[in-house]
Structures
1.
Amino acid sequence: MARQRSACYEAGFAVRQWIDAPRQSEPSATPDSGSSPALRRALVAPPAPPPSSGRCPSCGRARAGRTGSITLGLMADAPYKLILLRHGESEWNAKNLFTGWVDVDLTDKGEKEAVRGGELLKDAGLLPDVVHTSLQKRAIRTAQLGLEAADRHWIPVHRSWRLNERHYGALQGKDKAQTLAEFGEEQFMLWRRSYDTPPPVLKDGADFSQSDDPRYATIPSELRPRTECLKDVVERMLPYWYDGIVPDLLNGRTVLVAAHGNSLRGLVKHLDGISDEDITGLNIPTGIPLAYELDADFHPLKPGGTYLDPDAAQAAIEAVKNQGKKK
Ligand SMILES: O=C(O)[C@@H](CO)OP(=O)(O)O
């Protein structure tokens, strides 16, 4: 897979600078706050910067450096632990329908996959400290079932529409095999897997539109998707990666992201630096945790991460790939 790290990496560097800066809203720790001298030094004194930290390795621009921030004592060292989990089989996965933002539930099989996902986490000793999900039932329930199985049902939960499945536009509710037969393989694959060709727009108020769904009422109209290609998903997901998830990683938390086939494809593309061409061939299986260890610049130590059940993942990836061909 070709690595491609340009605009996104730049954005990461910019956000890293923001993260490194002192935050107005956090309580300030001062030398008078009653802590031990060693703790006070750790909180207040800037650490000696590592030799390579003066410049961004990608663009050569000067780094901001971590100076005098009260977050210093809270920063954890890499590697950071991140687990990605696609929801278990949904009712519309089972029916082979384009789903997108339609809020369908898990099937019995999907519930079992979610529980198994949690058991895999427990067996691997990879216990999440915090979970991030979309606003969609299939991801929310997968996270709950998986965390119960791992005995981590009590950890903090954060949800964002930015982790939602890709909005499938006017294809939402359509049968994949019929769509393939009607439009031909080339058009079908362009809509389904190309990086930058969205399906036709789904008009507000049409069947399977979410225009009146109260959970999306606070998204400004111009940001609310009516169709999306993967590029659109990456663009709306990355702000949440940087603002919602990266701070948890920096604080040393093991982070579980329970989301969807295409929002996770977008995140994997970003993490692994996969090119726009190569991402068309990447499919994510339902219910099998994908674990990453990330270095200080949030690059995977092992490209592609590690599926906790690699054999099952391989079989499930093939099944996702061939979905349109199902009769
Ligand atoms: O229909 C959908 O929303 C997605 C995920 O189930 O399908 P695909 O894998 O075809 O992108």
Note: Residues 93, 98-100, 165, 168, 192, 261-262, 320, 323 surround 2-phosphoglyceric acid (CB under 6 Å).
2.
Amino acid sequence: MNEQSVDDQPFQGRQIVSFVRRGSRLVGPRETYWQEHADDFVIDVPREHSSTSVHPDFRFDAVAEYGREAPLTIEIGSGLGEAIAARAEQQPERDFMAVEVYVPGVAGLLGRIGKAGLSNVRAVNADAIDVLGSMIPAGTVDEVWTFFADPWPKKRHHKRRLVQPEFAAIVASALRPGGTWRLATDWQEYAEQMLEVTDAAAEFENPHGGYAPRFEGRILTSFERKGMDAGREIFDIEARRR
Ligand SMILES: C[S@@+](CC[C@H](N)C(=O)[O-])C[C@H]1O[C@@H](n2cnc3c(N)ncnc32)[C@H](O)[C@@H]1O
């Protein structure tokens, strides 16, 4: 795959554009993982305006995709897929969907799926806002994870942060009543924003009244390890859909 053209940048007409287009070229083992597993595990979504969009008419059919009815966890920005692959292996009775705009990240997850022989994970190479906003039928998701979302530390970039009121509304619409949105970050000031956003959203309640204990289902990823090595504290947040 080649670098994307300027015409293929994330759609700028919307409120939140949380990522910049990075190279989608696959080399070495990731190219092999893609060739071997993409047909089986990457959901082939129709696009609209760019290669990370999802056509607004497309609806996901979980039973058709996974071949059963099971609680569904969706990870937003799954990176190299470390967390979701580990949890999917621990919980074969549940289904998992990794949403990631970065193609080499999706390929990394495919490698883990192949090695562990997982059948309960799928990947979507698309913008989470389209996936949760239109592709996923409302009220059908059991858990949404947003772990170590890009903190966009410069003030002028804060508008790119994923966790904002508009995004909370999109997550709320995808979750079933009683479903859980789990967040984690190593960026204190973004953690405070996450808490403010989830507290302000009428659709959510906070079962811990503040930060949550570390989610026991979240393994230590290389990304989290980097934050810890830099001396940063890790914050977990849990918001329950009313
Ligand atoms: C800092 S990384 C963290 C990766 C992983 N969650 C972890 O803990 O190792 C954030 C990831 O979110 C992805 N991302 C950012 N905005 C996104 C969006 N709107 N939809 C899907 N993925 C997104 C980025 O490409 C990146 O891989």
Note: Residues 30-241 form a domain with the Rossmann fold fold (CATH 3.40.50.150).
